[in-house]
Structure to design on (128 residues):
């Protein structure tokens, strides 16, 4: 049976107790939960637009990946959830600044609603 190791870092927003983990490590792979643009200290969404919250999503994922012993450059798959595809270009203008030279595979979809009424949520999978 595969061992599942939870990841918990105080450098990213805390997960809801008993609901989910920030990430799980299994078989040399790190599966990160979705990250919203929440400040890990205040617990509030960062002020600004979808660009500001996209930066914060990726900062939060970076912290979780580091807590797992890997990095953003080792991400192989990203899923982006937007509340409106009208935010696609602005999110991409930030997104392209990250992930290294070889960008991971990606899916981007619009959904009806996201946690805390935010406009973007990002999740990823990385190798150790």
């Amino acid at each position: 049976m595969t061992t599942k190791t939870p990841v918990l870092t105080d450098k990213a927003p805390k997960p809801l107790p008993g609901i989910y983990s920030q990430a799980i490590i299994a078989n040399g792979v790190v599966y990160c939960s979705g990250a919203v643009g929440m400040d890990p200290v205040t617990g509030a969404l960062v002020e600004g637009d979808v660009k500001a919250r996209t930066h914060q999503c990726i900062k939060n994922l970076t912290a979780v990946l580091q807590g797992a012993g890997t990095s953003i450059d080792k991400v192989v798959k990203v899923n982006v959830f937007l509340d409106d595809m009208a935010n696609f270009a602005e999110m991409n203008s930030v997104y392209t600044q990250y992930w290294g030279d070889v960008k991971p595979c990606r899916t981007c979809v619009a959904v009806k609603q996201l946690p805390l009424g935010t406009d973007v949520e990002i999740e990823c999978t990385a190798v150790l």
